[in-house]
Specification:
single chain; 189 residues; alpha+beta; 2 domains; four-stranded antiparallel sheet; three-stranded antiparallel sheet; 2 helices; WD repeat; WD40_repeat_dom_sf; repeat; WD40_rpt
Length: 189
C-alpha cells in the first residue's frame, strides 16, 4: 500500500513538473519573440540614424558648395543651452567595467537590493549592485555586441517551497539569445 502511495505521489510530481516545464517553454518562446522584435527595432533604429547622418553630411556639403551668405536682416537662431540642462541635472552613480559602448540596460529589485544589468559592444553582460556601487556578476559567452538585456523572474520548485531565482536574458549581434543563471554565472542548457 505504501509503495502504491509513493508511486502515485511520484506520478503526481512528474505531472506537475511537466506542466511547469511546458509553462516555462512557453515563457521562453514569448521572451525569444520579444528579443527578436527588440533586435529588429534596434537594427531599424541604427539604419535610420545612419541614413540621417548621411543626409546631414550631404546637406553640409551642399552648404559648402553653395557658399552663400545670409543677409544681415535675416534672423535665424537655433540654440540649445547645455549649461541650463547641466545645472538642472546631477550624476548619481557611475559603474566602471565595460571596455566598449554600452547598448542596453535593465533595472530590477530582489532580495531587498537594487540591481542594473548592462550589455555592451565588448560582448559581455554585467550585473551591478546599485547600493554598493559594485559589479557583482560578469557573463561571458556572446561573440558579438550585446544589444538587449533583461532581468527575468524564474521560479524553481524545491522541497515544496517556491524560491525566486533571478535570471538575466541577453541577445546579441551574434544571433543568439542566452539565459544566464544568476547564482552560478553559467548559461542555462
Amino acid at each position: 500500500k505504501e509503495l502504491l502511495e509513493k508511486n502515485n505521489e511520484i506520478k503526481k510530481m512528474q505531472r506537475e513538473s511537466q506542466q511547469e516545464l511546458l509553462k516555462l517553454r512557453a515563457d521562453i518562446e514569448i521572451m525569444k519573440q520579444d528579443f527578436i522584435e527588440k533586435e529588429k527595432h534596434f537594427n531599424e533604429s541604427i539604419k535610420l540614424l545612419q541614413e540621417e547622418e548621411e543626409e546631414k553630411e550631404e546637406e553640409e556639403e551642399d552648404k559648402k558648395d553653395n557658399d552663400y551668405v545670409l543677409s544681415s536682416n535675416t534672423t535665424y537662431s537655433s540654440t540649445f543651452s547645455f549649461d541650463m540642462f547641466c545645472s538642472s541635472s546631477k550624476l548619481l552613480k557611475t559603474f566602471i567595467g565595460h571596455t566598449s559602448t554600452i547598448w542596453t540596460i535593465d533595472y530590477s529589485t530582489f532580495n531587498d537590493s537594487q540591481y542594473i544589468c548592462s550589455g555592451s559592444q565588448d560582448c559581455t553582460v554585467r550585473v551591478w549592485d546599485i547600493d554598493n556601487n559594485k559589479q557583482i556578476k560578469l557573463f561571458n559567452g556572446h561573440s558579438n555586441a550585446v544589444t538587449c538585456v533583461k532581468f527575468v523572474s524564474y521560479y524553481r520548485h524545491y522541497h515544496k517551497v517556491n524560491n525566486c531565482l533571478p535570471i538575466v536574458c541577453s541577445s546579441a549581434c551574434d544571433s543568439t539569445i542566452r539565459f544566464w543563471d544568476f547564482e552560478t554565472t553559467g548559461q542555462f542548457q
